[in-house]
Amino acid sequence: MSDEATKPSGTVKFLSGNEACMEGAIAAGCRFFAGYPISPSSEIAEKMSGRLPKLGGKFIQMEDEIASMGAIIGASLAGQKTMTATSGPGFSLMQENLGFAMMAEVPCVVINVMRGGPSTGNPTGPSQSDVMQCRWGTHGDHPAIALSPSTIREVFDTTVACFNFAEMMRTPVVLAMDEITAHMREKIVIPPAAEIALINRRKPALQAGETYYPYEAGEDLVPPMMNFGEGARYHVTGLDHDRTGFPSAAAEVQESLHRRLVDKIERHLEKLLLFEHHRTEDAEVLVVAYGSTARSAKRAVEEARAKGVKAGLFRPITLYPIPEKQIEAAAAHAKRVVVPEMNLGQYKLEVERILGKGPAITGVNRVNGEPIAPSLILSAILGD
Amino acid sequence: MSKRYEVRLAGSGGQGLVLGGVILAEAASIFDGKNATQSQSYGPESRGGASKSEVIISEGEIDYPKATHIDLLLLMTEAAAEKYLKDVPETALVVADLDLVPTAIPDKLRSVKIPITRLARETVGKEFVANIVALGALQELTGIVSFESLKKAVLARVPKGTEELNLKALSVGQEAAREYDGKNIPH
């Protein structure tokens, strides 16, 4: 092969997670960002403010996170792929409008670079304490999709995936990064545009004179979406609504709406699940870890293997919906399961629910603004 | 698991240690073709306050991106010395700013004191290139990256119009470290 053929395609850069997130958003077609800068996510807003105007896009610094969420919902209804970026306190403020976007089925992407909480907590230290908030932050039964990357290339890829999932499912998608992944830098090969698969919202195919029902879904449970300004007037509300988008208090309307919003995730589950198995085939001690903690866990697994312990790592990249069958499969031979996370055991609760009374499950938890060192996970694997 | 080479640059905010770490990691990964990660911890202040930048260099995949067994420690403040000398393995090389770190480095460690900041201020002419002077010295003492790659990495990161200044800083640091070749580093 010629040198040209073996040369890696794409652009080699040395980027932080926040920078790679911006690159991923741009590659996914995001041309509208509204946000209120907050550590440790600020570089995303900073980089977007530099890049978007050059691409004909819009960057707006809003007065707060409530308005930021409102702005990206509005711009998405007008046809843009939209994003905001925040951290714990801002993510809390976004919850109401996140629920609105779920209810009104408006695709958008929220980057949450987690920091210690509650409240203003620890602005500059790493944390993974918003995991449950990604699932249950807004009220009511609702669909939730949240991804958590471990490497800088994966930040790029998962940011693209967030936009794809949002467009495909007509729902907001959260990228839950921790400060280490957001600020760490490493080499990344950014793939050429032609190699990045993009999904765009499906538009209605209306016959002449046919009425557009914005919330009428077919077999796939995701209604086709017409952008505002493209021909039909329609109503968007956070109230329970029928297929026209106007409020309805009819029992059967409410029942079918709420079930469909949740069921549409289940219907497309396989496409939404991203995960990695590392030496789980024969693992007698299984580690379940995500984000930067999974990097510590991988090292601990290798060190345990070197000592003759059959350890393995299952790494959910999609935190929600949970890769339940995959976790069960990874734990097939496990006598013990270790769940390290920079919180007091949020994902461990999910693992306990999934694996029931099978293997003994231990958490390795840190909430001191320090990463979880491989040695701590190794001790838990070895049962010290 | 490939051998990791772990570098910790410690001092205070405003000394350019995060940028120093980025440049070192880029020299290793982009220009020398190895793998490298750079990470940091910092306080809410943009100047003053503790600042720490860590670089891991390896031929193989780097899983955990933070330092666990330091090979090279740069100390740019007394506070950093107090904090980080405690858990340095005896195999590590410690490089400290002669004027800013009055503490004696324990005899059991290999260590070098260089007037890094003074050289930046008096010989190069700008105190803010102390981080680049330090990189020149670290390269000369360890060879962990090649000088050519370090030069390219510096030029790729520094603001336009400061190239000459930064290249001079790199040479001044290299020069200052030259009196200690590998064997002469005092214990």
Description:
- The complex is a heterodimer of chains A (384) and B (187).
- In chain A, the strands form 3 sheets. Chain A has a 7-stranded mixed sheet with strand order 3-2-4-5-7-6-12, sandwiched between helices. A 5-stranded mixed sheet of chain A has the order 9-11-10-13-14, sandwiched between helices. In chain A, strands 1-8 form a two-stranded antiparallel ribbon.
- Chain A is globular, with a radius of gyration of 21 Å.
- Chain A contains 14 helices and 14 strands.
- Mean pLDDT of chain A is 96; it is low at 1-6.
- In chain A, 39% of the residues lie in helices and 19% in strands.
- Chain A starts with a helix and ends with a helix.
- In chain A, helix 11 links the parallel strand 10 and strand 11 (311-316).
- Chain A has 384 residues and is an alpha/beta fold.
- Chain A has 2 domains: 7-195, Thiamin diphosphate (ThDP)-binding fold, Pyr/PP domains (Rossmann fold); 273-382, Rossmann fold.
- By secondary structure, chain B is an alpha/beta fold.
- Chain B has a domain at 4-116 and 149-158: Pyruvate-ferredoxin Oxidoreductase, domain 3 (3-Layer(aba) Sandwich).
- In chain B, 37% of the residues lie in helices and 21% in strands.
- Chain B contains 6 helices and 6 strands, in the order E-H-E-E-E-H-E-E-H-H-H-H.
- Chain B has a 6-stranded mixed sheet, with helices on both faces.
- In chain B, strand 2 (35-42) and strand 3 (50-58) form a beta hairpin.
- In chain B, helix 1 (17-31) packs across helix 4 (130-142), helix 3 (116-124) packs across helix 6 (163-177) and helix 4 packs across helix 6 (163-177).
- Chain B is globular.
- The relative contact order of chain B is 0.17.
- The model of chain B has no long low-confidence stretch (mean pLDDT 93).
- The interface between A and B is medium-sized, with 24 and 22 residues.
